[in-house]
Amino acid sequence: MTTTATPSARPAPLAAVLRAETRLFLREPGSLFWILVFPTALMTVLGLIPSFREADDALGGRSVIDLYVPVAVLLAMIMAGLQAMPPVLTGYRERGILRRMSATPVRPSALLAAQIVLHGAAALGSAALVVAVGRTAFGVRLPGRAAGYLLALLLAVACVLALGATICALSRTSKVATAAGSVAYLVMMFTAGVWVPVQTMPDLLRRIVEFTPFGAASQALDQAASGHWPGAAHLAVVLVWTAVPATASTRLFRWE
Amino acid sequence: MSIIEVHGVRKAYGGRAVVDGVSFTVDEGEIFGILGPNGAGKTTTVECVEGLRTPDAGTVRVAGLDPVADRQEVTHLLGAQLQESELQPKLTVREALELYSAFYRHPADRDALAGRLGLDGHLDRRFAQLSGGQKQRLFIALALIGSPRVVVLDELTTGLDPRARRDTWRLIEEIRDGGVTVLLVTHFMEEARRLCDRIAVIDRGRVVAVDTPGGLIGAAPGSTVISFTPSQPLAHADLRALPGAVSAEVSGPGGRVVVQGTDETANAVITLLARHRITARHLRVTEAGLDDVFLDLTERAS
């Protein structure tokens, strides 16, 4: 009906939302530190221990730092999806920010989508930094099967964001979301191999951990790093852990 | 011409009707007040107008459009200031104006709007750093940024100091003078009386009266209060017999008389005094406040 030509100077509504949320994201030094700096810093500290840089026969001729690169990559994702994102999204609901936007022509889901995209992008950026520093500072070889590595990375990011979104959907307040995020975060750090790399876990424990999203993602990344295609079973585990929470969170999310 | 039509709207939560058959129409270009005690269903009613809630029964039309079915169109011609909503704490005033103006087809001039609302000196301040009055002015700006035909202002001045409240009233009048219809939710009598062209009084989910502020006051029994100190005592029976009088009291050492009634009562008092050759000292004829009318209306309903 209306034949209004959009003036070219005016940004598209969704682009404007993404731009505003990007600015806000860059104003959160805490989140930026934990997502972008901390994983690389942790890997660097471990890499400075001389014995961790030596090839170990018990690790199939690899060094501890070789195993810690994927761990630090997963750590970046956990920080973004489970630690940083849930309080932001629940805060938007709690403060009536979503409600205010629902009285405009733009749906409030645009705000949530922008935050999810930003946290995902930050996690991937941090992963790239980890791999780059691992290569330049400690001579960790770049993933042998780059496409497989990227696939595992993207799946892992999608998974952590879906899990974070589920925490928001289930939490009434941002305090609850922070608490739930912290519990999930400790569990995920363990299964991702932050304390003991998955590849060096005792057999039985490793088999159990492989059914968790980050245990499986860790194995997938490790396989791709060693030049193989990630095992279909591992990818399938991550995929299920992505699809189920993603569906649940979209159904359960309360807008008010 | 009416721009908002609300007919028989009902909305229940958990079996309890919060809005129970509300009907009213708002003419284009007027300030229409929704007045009522807390919990009367005022906010739920306007949320149905804004399309934020779907009524269980009844119809709502904004410029002929259904706010739920034609949500997208309605958001372009209706601007809203919501009760208890915030913005992102670290978003600056400038960024908020930029962001919201990108949502609309015909955004208002941001600089002019900021100037009009006295926000031009605070463009780089973050939302969390603004005072209560500044936040409300920003919310008015965001309600107006899409060049709407209607704005809904819900408890806009609650929590503001008297000066900020008066400044806000002036802004609301300016909005109306600019040709925008204002739907104003309030529980302040003074605000409703000062600003509104017409008022719907809502109590327990029902409209108990719709009229101009003057009409509401005039229609109420006992809306005119006559008080004086007579030079000689008056017979109580004479006072009681005054036409339209709802109460007559004699009190105090000086025997001050207070009669509540209508304009007719006031005339009859003068005649009565003249007939008995009594002079009245400190004669005052005052209008009852909207408060009294409001209490009367909401008590009668119960």
UniProtKB/TrEMBL annotation, chain A:
Q: Which organism is it from?
A: Streptomyces pratensis (strain ATCC 33331 / IAF-45CD)
| Any single biological process term in GO | response to antibiotic
Q: Where are the transmembrane segments?
A: 32-52, 67-89, 110-134, 146-169, 176-196, 232-253
Record carries keyword Iron = no
| UniProt topology in membrane | Multi-pass membrane protein
Per the record, the similarity remark reads: Belongs to the ABC-2 integral membrane protein family.
Keyword terms, alphabetized? Antibiotic resistance, Cell membrane, Membrane, Transmembrane, Transmembrane helix, Transport
Where is the protein situated, by its record's location annotation?
Answer: Cell membrane; Membrane
Q: What's the name of the protein?
A: Transport permease protein
Q: Which InterPro entries match?
A: ABC-2_transporter (IPR052902), ABC2_TM (IPR013525), ABC2_TM_bact-type (IPR047817), ABC_2_transport (IPR000412)
Domain ABC transmembrane type-2: start-end pairs: 30-256
Write out the GO cellular component annotations: ATP-binding cassette (ABC) transporter complex
Q: What GO molecular function terms would the record report?
A: ABC-type transporter activity
From TrEMBL, chain B:
Membrane-topology annotation of the record: Peripheral membrane protein
InterPro entries recorded: AAA+_ATPase (IPR003593), ABC_transporter-like_ATP-bd (IPR003439), ABC_transporter-like_CS (IPR017871), ABC_transporter_ATP-binding (IPR050763), P-loop_NTPase (IPR027417)
Localization: Cell membrane
Task: Name the Pfam families on file.
Answer: ABC_tran
Keywords, alphabetical = Antibiotic resistance, ATP-binding, Cell membrane, Membrane, Nucleotide-binding, Translocase, Transport
- In this chain the ABC transporter domain maps to 4-229
Which GO BP terms, alphabetically?
response to antibiotic
A cellular component term from Gene Ontology for this protein is:
plasma membrane
E.C. numbers: 7.6.2.2
Q: Name one GO molecular function term.
A: ATP binding
> Keyword Cell membrane on this protein?
yes
- Does the record carry Cell membrane as a key word? yes
Q: Which PANTHER family has this protein been placed in?
A: ABC TRANSPORTER ATP-BINDING PROTEIN (PTHR42711)
Q: Which family does it belong to?
A: Belongs to the ABC transporter superfamily. Drug exporter-1 (DrugE1) (TC 3.A.1.105) family.
Protein name, entry field: ABC-type xenobiotic transporter
